[in-house]
Design goal:
The protein has helices at about 15-30, 50-65, 75-90, 100-110, 130-140, 185-195, 205-220, 250-255, 260-265, 280-285, 305-315, 320-325, 330-340, 350-360, 370-380, 390-405, 410-420, 425-430; strands at about 5, 35-40, 70, 95, 140-145, 150-155, 160-165, 175, 200, 225-230, 230-235, 300. By secondary structure, the protein is α/β, with parallel strands linked by helices.
Length: about 450
Amino acid sequence: MTVTRFAPSPTGYLHVGNLRTALFNFLIARKAGGQFILRLDDTDPERSKQEYVDAIMEDLEWLGLTWDRVERQSSRLERYEAAAEELRAKGRFYECFETPTELDLKRKKQLNMGRPPVYDRAALNLSEAEKDRLRAERGQGHWRFKLDQERIEWEDGILGALSIDAASVSDPVLIRADGQFLYTLASVCDDIDFGITNVVRGSDHVTNTATQIQIIEALGGTVPGFAHHSLLTGPQGEALSKRLGTLALRDLRAQGIEPLALLSLMARLGSSQPVELRSSLDEIIEGFDLSAFGAAPTKFDVNDLFPLTAHYLAQQPFEAVAEQVRALGVPDDIAEAFWTVARENITTLTDLEGWWALCRDGAEPVVADDDREMVAAAMALLPEPPYTAESWGAWTAAVKEATGRKGKGLFMPLRKALTGMDHGPDMASLMPLLQKVRR
Ligand code: GLU
């Protein structure tokens, strides 16, 4: 059975970059009829917050990305300790005592000599007596996994055949000096224990994958299929990392972006398949194809979400938005007609407010100098509301008769006089919704 996971650290709000990872893993599981696990990488007790756990769940629920179960790393520390013991017993784990400053110095020296800054494994040569002395002086050490210095190869679901020379990578630290298990060890244990079959994550994890493959094998686990999607950039190809804070899912929600608009874009952006609005999550699941994605950075423009949202809303039947329409105070007897007229003229649901204000209160007339006389004559011919579907036709015919105006010269000044705008819904449909006309 296909089992995937989305593994955010609850140290902040989800943004569009995280969504890409969450969505791909969700879609793979759902398309295969498998399981999708929400895993909270909360081994850092200082930075992990329940408020972010709640927010992550709220954001995923908003999008309809349902999970089959939740796992928290903070409740699995015993398992990680056991795995550490196993690695020690197998001679794949060693204690190191370098301070961050010492490590930094080593790195600088290597770089100066034109060598890659790979940890030199000095700690491997420490005798037990030396370790005791260092422990007495500096406290507990940190623990590194001893990589087998060979080529690590895998067939990446997006990047194709990949290989990394383990000798070019530092032995990863899996336990910090303060005893905190680091992500790599926890993630590997979880992937093994939960039977994860497919891992999709950002290409910033490619090197991690190489080392994780060796740790999984050292622990006797089955290596899942890995795929690394490209990172998102801004519309001009600029790094998005610093701006991701402003692209939080909750901010997009607050701006009125509709879930299906966002999902439709993210399920296709960066792939060879065209972006098009899908009418349901099922349709997105059905059409998802991981192999259509490429390695090149993916340009993301938040502005692309607005036309998709508008398109989505224009297709919605009244029932889908009845609650929001009523919440504006639109009377029941015209609520559906109001929606049918307004939905073609909004970008987000928040725009409904403006259209309803116009219907309820009328608009300040906008009249060009050349039209003053004609509009005055027209207003004299306009009865008070309520209007019907025939009112616009009857009124414009009467104004034409009285003023001799026709075509655009007739209709545009009247539209501007009634709505204060030179664009908007079909006037014959709008007029029955007008509760008031300002003269
Ligand atoms: N918590 C990790 C992250 O957000 C998970 C990475 C992974 O998928 O293994 O980067």
